[in-house]
Amino acid sequence: MSYSSFDLLDISRPILVFGKDGQVGRALQGCLKSFKVPVVFLGRDECDLSEESALTAILNQYQPQIIINAAAYTAVDQAEGEPDLAFAINAKAPQLMAQYVTGVSRGVFVHYSTDYVFADTKQDAYLETDSAGPVDQLCVYGQSKLAGENAIQDVFNLICSSEKLKNTDHFSKYFILRTSWVYGDGSNFIRTMLKLASERDSLRVVADQVGTPSSATWLAEIGVHLATADVASGIYHAVPDGEVSWYGLAIFAIEAAASYGEGLELKPESIQAIPAKDYPSMAARPYNSRMNNQKLKKVLSEMAFTGQYPRWQEQVDCYVQNIVKESLKS
Ligand SMILES: NC(=O)c1ccc[n+]([C@@H]2O[C@H](COP(=O)([O-])OP(=O)(O)OC[C@H]3O[C@@H](n4cnc5c(N)ncnc54)[C@H](OP(=O)(O)O)[C@@H]3O)[C@@H](O)[C@H]2O)c1
Q1: pLDDT band for position 2 (50/70/90)?
Q2: pLDDT for residue 163
Q3: Using 50, 70 and 90 to split pLDDT, how confident is the model at 168?
Q4: What confidence tens digit (pLDDT) does each residue in 118-143 have?
Q5: Is the distance from the beta carbon of residue 209 to the nearest atom of ligand 1 less than 6 Å?
Q6: High-pLDDT (> 70) share of the chain, %
Q7: pTM
Q8: Is the CB of residue 112 below 6 angstroms from any atom belonging to ligand 1?
Q9: Does ligand 1 have an atom closer than 6 angstroms to the CB of 87?
Q10: Are 246 and 207 in contact (CB under 8 A)?
Q11: Residues with Cβ < 8 Å from 228, sequence gap 6 or more?
Q12: Is 43 in the pocket of ligand 1 (CB under 6 A)?
């Protein structure tokens, strides 16, 4: 049976969204604005996810049927010096959320994860079935996010395998949406490039790391859609079609901004392509962030989610156009 249509949700129990002030969290606020099921949005002030007791109290207070976790310790370099905090937020808190959801009849847990769980073990796009890690080659942020993924899967595998046999109706589900290079309402690479392009006449950008820019708005829609659809639990690579280097993305964003009338100091030809080794950082970043999105594409097409699966170029173009519109207004 399709247990997860909204008609079957217990509307006396809210959807709980963690990370309301982040890029994906803000997009979720927009996406869930006029939902017929009550939604509670929580930020750090309402629930500090590094405190287990605070999280447990919130779960007991609201007793949600669906949890969408867009919160994370995302300060990649800073995480190198704060591994305990990163693991508390990125691994322990999702584990507690998963434990809660498995105890709920027809509960759903949507959790966002990252390309940083992969450590350049492949040249082409990673599949969901590829092994993540090796852990010792991941930065602390990547390790903590991978620990979160593993903890969620362990909880569901342990509890739900027996529940499923007992009573399919009550079986809870999880969705781990691995994504990359997120941009939305907040700080991100594209905004940084546009800001620098308005101030400088030259720029050096890394050209040997490749991935797929992903819109926070789109990620929010995918998360809500999966949470409420009849789709199997698991990891899904949630990235648009296509790939680009940071250098290619900088050029694309700056050309788009110029085409929409933004006056910039920097000309695309004045951007210098450099190797990542010439832009040292505390945390190691993957060279290959390509993720194969066929699994997600297939389930979305079966649900008729959108007419056409997006390419990153259309979404970035639209995003830049909106930024330029806002800046021209002000
Ligand atoms: N950004 C990317 O490029 C990227 C790439 C791949 C995957 N992802 C994943 O996508 C998801 C969403 O990312 P995003 O870009 O939306 O991240 P973001 O903008 O950095 O937002 C993360 C949110 O988590 C909150 N948070 C951090 N520590 C917390 C704590 N102790 N208690 C409660 N809340 C806490 C932050 O609160 P404050 O606002 O108070 O700081 C922030 O609002 C994350 O799971 C991330 O790992 C992101």
Answers
A1: very low
A2: 56
A3: low
A4: 999 999 999 999 999 999 999 999 99
A5: no
A6: 93
A7: 0.96
A8: yes
A9: no
A10: yes
A11: 4, 5, 6, 9, 66, 108
A12: yes
Find out whether 95 and 148 touch, Cβ atoms under 8 Å. Answer: yes
Please give the distance, rounded to the nearest whole angstrom, from the Cα atom of residue 165 to the centre of ligand 1: 36
Across the range 206-226, mean pLDDT stands at 97
Ligand 1 center–CA 42 separation, angstroms? 12
Catalytic residues: 141
Q: Which residue has a Cα nearest atom 45 of ligand 1?
A: 112
pLDDT surpassing 90 at residue 250: yes
What confidence tier does 4 reach under pLDDT thresholds 50, 70, 90? very low
Contact 50, 71 (CB under 8 A): no
For residue 69, the surrounding DSSP H or E stretch is strand 66-69
Mutate to test the pocket of ligand 1, among 182, 188, 214, 290 (most ligand atoms within 8 A of CB): 182
Average pLDDT, the chain: 93
